[in-house]
Amino acid sequence: MTDKRLTTSWGAPVGDNQNSLTAGSRGPTLIQDVHLLEKLAHFNRERVPERVVHAKGAGAHGYFEVTNDVSKYTKAAFLSEVGKKTDMFIRFSTVAGELGSADTVRDPRGFAVKFYTEEGNYDLVGNNTPVFFIRDAIKFPDFIHTQKRHPQTHLKNPDAVWDFWSLSPESLHQVTILMSDRGIPATLRNMHGFGSHTFKWVNEKGEGYWVKYHFKTQQGVKNMDPAVAAKIAGEHPDYHTEDLFNAIENGDFPEWKLYVQIMPLEDANTYRFDPFDVTKVWSQKDYPLIEVGRMVLNRNPENYFAEVEQATFSPGTLVPGIDVSPDKMLQGRLFAYHDAHRYRVGANHQALPINRARNEVNNYQRDGQMRFDNNGGSGVYYEPNSLNGPKEDPSSKIAPFEVSGEADSVGYDENDHYTQPGDLYRLMTEDEKTRLVQNFVDAMKPVTRKEILEREVGHIYKADKEWGQRVADGLGISIPTVTAN
């Protein structure tokens, strides 16, 4: 076997990679040692900015296989027939922590899937929870600020976290899930995934349906005791990352089954909860789960940075047959995610191997940093043109939808933030309730302002009186009079 020759980034052979070029044995180092300069300069630039959220993550390759005919609901080609397989890549992540944070913290987990379909890439960018903390993207920067560090102390700030949540009662449903047993999954393989938002499927006839995605783990849901999680966080902060890698490396390929809930378009006007409100779920009694297919992870990345860190996902990466809904949070994400990648990885992030579509890509986007393909060559670079350049395909236009109303800054019409969290609490066993209450108490004890505690307890009490009283007792405070009445 012939040894590989070490070269510079421009391909010239390196004569000495152990010693700098110096004036004599003691130096000084000479600026003409361009190999040294290139190594140091590249090293200074090896880190792209970490993600503002979902910074810590793990990824894997696999495939998605259709197991049930859903073609009457969507014309998406990768879902067109039973048995059809599509390559995919998934990235799991925590939300609030930095790149070096621990895997086993109490936090939602990102669940972002990229399908490499014959009609372009389709990204389903969700979480391991079916709901979210807020329902309008205008609140997202403020919410994430509360999860980050105090600008003076540079410490996490429980006052900010609970102040925001107590002033945003729509968060209670997600906070309840976060404080439940499922707030710390045992492994990334032992948790469900959700698209969370409402999306729209459109079939070949142009008929539309509202849809919710549910990925059900076939390894079974398993969670981690908070004390064990804290111990592992200190001793092995990359526990979930290693577990996923080792499972796949050992041939124990994790699998999820994908189900959807389908709602006729007209039901959105009469359903008892706004179906576009991401802080709410649809009852599975009203809209039962319909099997779609299975996702299998069977290959680890060869290079973490190239594949996991440079992977970019956006709910706006869509294919024909799949569209969005009026969900206000989703609408904001359509811009924010693509824009985050343009800032973090570059304007040409979609051309990177991990993100590039498997079908031919033809457009008039040119230039920009890190343009490493042929940049369109000598081909036509504007449109319309008479030079046989790429043209739009009218059959791929989105299905028309009706809009109405006056332009204004308005919220959702419905503001019942308590029924679903209360129902969730009442579905729990007594042991689950006890752990939930204790997790709330433990998380809220560091809060220094009593009015924040009282405000949050007031929301819990409105969801379920017993639950609210138990949290209040654990914190040693009273139920606010205005709430109790």
What report would you give on this structure?
The protein is α+β, with helices and mostly antiparallel strands and 485 residues long. The chain is built from 13 helices and 10 strands. Strand 6 and strand 7 form a beta hairpin. Helix 2 runs antiparallel to helix 3. The longest helix has 17 residues. Belongs to the catalase family. Its cofactor is heme. Pfam families: Catalase, Catalase-rel. This is Catalase.
Main traits of this protein?
EC 1.11.1.6; 16% strand; metal-binding; iron; 485 residues; Catalase HpII,  Chain A, domain 1; ten-stranded antiparallel sheet; oxidoreductase; alpha+beta; peroxidase; single chain
Can you summarize this structure?
One of its GO terms (biological process) is response to hydrogen peroxide. This protein has 485 residues and is α+β, with helices and mostly antiparallel strands.
Please bin the fraction of helical residues: 25-40%
Hey, roughly how much beta strand do the residues contain?
A: 15-25%
Please identify the structural class as seen in this structure.
alpha+beta
Terminal Cα separation, in Å? 82 Å
Please give the CATH class of the domain at 57-142 and 182-355.
Answer: Mainly Beta
CATH architecture assignment name of the domain at 57-142 and 182-355:
Beta Barrel
Overall mean pLDDT? 95
Order of helices and strands: HEEEEHHHEEEHHEEHEHHHHHH
Oligomer: single chain
Number of alpha- plus pi-helical segments: 13
Q: Can you say what the CATH homologous superfamily of the domain at 57-142 and 182-355 is?
A: Catalase core domain
Strand elements, count: 10
